[in-house]
Amino acid sequence: MTGAQWRKSTKSGNNGGSCVEVADNLPGVVLVRDTKDREGGTLHVAPSSWQSFVNLAKQIGPVG
User: Fold this and answer.
1) Chain centroid to CA 33
2) Within its chain, how far is the Cα of 5 from the centroid?
3) Phi, psi for 45 (deg, rounded to 5)
4) pLDDT of residue 7
5) Where are the strands (E) in 13-60, listed by range?
6) Residue 6: what are its φ and ψ, rounded to 5°?
7) DSSP 3-state assignment of 8?
8) Which end of the chain has less Cβ packing within 10 Å, N or C?
9) Among 11, 62, 46, which residue's Cα sits nearest to residue 21?
10) How far apart are CA 7 and CA 34, in angstroms?
11) How far is 27 from 50, CA to CA, in rounded Å?
């Protein structure tokens, strides 16, 4: 989407591993895409749903 400012998690390494990018600067939507396949598709998520996901991920912690 035009104007999306993409960022990677600060927890992501620089080795090209399994990373996602998020753009949360657009009104009413959060965009999520695969860093390795930026043209492969983009998830569109409501900001409240994204915040719920982030909160849950923080509670659960790292997987693997």
Assistant:
1) 6
2) 11
3) -130, 145
4) 93
5) 20-23, 30-34, 43-45
6) -85, 145
7) strand
8) C
9) 11
10) 11
11) 13
pLDDT tens readout for residues 5-63: 999 877 666 665 678 899 999 999 999 998 888 888 999 999 999 999 999 988 988 77
Q: Model's pTM, two decimal places?
A: 0.80
Under 8 Å CB-to-CB from 11, ≥6 apart: which residues? Answer: none
Q: How far, CA to CA in Å, does 43 sit from each of 38, 53, 61?
A: 11, 13, 22
Whole-number pLDDT of residue 1: 73
Task: Please give the Cα distance from 27 to 29 (Å, whole number).
Answer: 6
Radius of gyration of the chain (CA): 12
Residue 64 banded pLDDT, cuts 50, 70, 90: low
